[in-house]
Write a sequence for this structure.
């Protein structure tokens, strides 16, 4: 599990926000979706754009998703959420 450092409530986190995880790395929220009543995040490391994280909320923690079946299911949802966000903002 990854804890957020100095971050508010996660339901306030939105696309383009920058968060710091307990590994002291900063990540931009590339996309956020709610799927089956769980918030999922697609994060990109600001200093290393090749480092991507897929996470879900568990209380005050973000839990990394390593199951490729889940990420494969979420990728089209992340893409649509990002596309909608940038088309409307």
């Amino acid at each position: 599990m990854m804890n957020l450092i100095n971050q508010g409530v996660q339901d306030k986190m939105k696309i383009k926000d920058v968060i710091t995880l307990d590994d002291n790395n900063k990540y931009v929220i590339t996309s956020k979706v709610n799927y089956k009543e769980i918030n999922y995040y697609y994060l990109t490391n600001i200093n290393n754009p090749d480092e991507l994280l897929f996470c879900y909320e568990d209380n005050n923690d973000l839990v990394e998703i390593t199951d490729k079946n889940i990420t494969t299911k979420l990728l089209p949802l992340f893409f649509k959420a990002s596309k909608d966000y940038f088309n409307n903002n």
In short: The mean pLDDT is 85.
